[in-house]
Amino acid sequence: MIIPLTVQFLLPMSVLLSLESSSGICSAALHDNGNLLALAEVHIEQAHASRLALLIDQVVKFADVDIKNISAVAVSSGPGSYTGLRIGTSTAKGLCFALGIPLIAVGTLDLLAEHVRVFNVNGWHLCPMIDARRMEVYCSLYHANGERLRPVEAKVIDETSFEQDLAVHPVLFFGTGASKCKNTITHSNAFFLDGINAGAATLGVIASKKYSIRDIEDVDTFEPFYLKDFMAKKAVNLIPGIPNKSEV
Fold first, then answer.
1. Which of the two ends of the chain, N or C, has the fewest CB atoms closer than 10 A to its terminal CB?
2. pLDDT tens figures, 139-172
3. Residue 48 and residue 40: Cα distance in Å, rounded?
4. Which residues make beta-bridge pairs with 38?
5. CB contact at 8 A, 202 and 209
6. Which helix or strand (DSSP H or E) is residue 20 part of?
7. Do residues 39 and 200 make contact, with C-beta atoms less than 8 angstroms apart?
8. Nearest by Cα to 110 from 87, 85, 83, 76
């Protein structure tokens, strides 16, 4: 699905291309100093390898921006889909190498938390969850202001999960892993929000702030945050044409 945006803007000063491929939704966006110029996304599972380049072409054409003039490429760094992260990272690094521009990485849970933070009018703590396997999720806990309160972890959910946090403060759970936890986390302070996915639109806003303070990655050595190393190794050779870690 291509989402065109009617915009008025002056000549771009720092145009960032953002790529989100850590979830089932694949998206690309262009931002000028944090302002969204164009967004394109596809809601098709396992379409990242075949569609990401098309989405990039769509946003640069719609915004009438020469890709040679973009200032940096931003990518979601994980955790999330191993194959999706590999595709997004390889595409982003290839563009950065070819154009000689910086790479910016944003954690996927940070991205989800920021997406919800802007309309969290109740001031609840935020807990983005990414679906792993069975009753396991990748998650973290954030203050209503976006400050991370817990490290990112792979967590098996049971009836006692987050009970200490829920005893003192309402928590809003969301993301692809939250729905399967509704019947397990039943505390009165636990609230759930459906339909929240990581996207390039919010990614570009965060990345623009990072770009302004030169919070960038080493393009040569950057790797996604798979969280589970043993699973990441299995994912390395799934995509033809994408180099192994040792070859990047």
1. N
2. 999 999 999 999 999 999 999 999 999 999 999 9
3. 13
4. 30
5. no
6. strand 15-20
7. yes
8. 76
